[in-house]
Amino acid sequence: MIEKMLEEMVFVFHKAEKYLMRLVVLCFVAVIVAQGLMTDDTTRFYMSWSERMEGQNLPAPVVAEKGDSLPGINVDIKSPQALLTIKLSNYPSASQAKIMINGQSRYSFSKQQVTLRVDAGDTVEIDTRDCRVPLEFRIDSGSDNLAYPSRGQIFSGNQSIVMIGKIIVK
Which of 30, 35, 83, 97 is deepest in the core (most CB within 10 A)? Predict the structure, then answer.
């Protein structure tokens, strides 16, 4: 009787071993196929959670078109400095909105547009926390050596801090 039970247990273990080996091989093939699919950018975006959390790609090198400079302003600025004009789109002024460079408040929108002198790598933000209405800002122009932010980009803020981004100069 014990011998019969041992034989049945050995049979069950052999059968389980066979299925376990099939599962290991199947998982190995699935890993290889998944790694192959990850080489395609569009597929990787849907397969990888961290890829979706990364944000948008910034094409490099960014090239500004000729004629994007500020009219009437000497744009003969040597890198790593650049000029940037931010325009308040929906109101003539909003003095409560502050432009922060590297976390420090430097400019306010006492007029409809503000021209900034920035260095490469500076972080530009607009603080609209004290404003009671939603505001929209547009990058109106920039010096020839300004690669990011680009002309025409629109940012909006509603009682928050709007991140324009890090300044990239050519």
Answer: 97
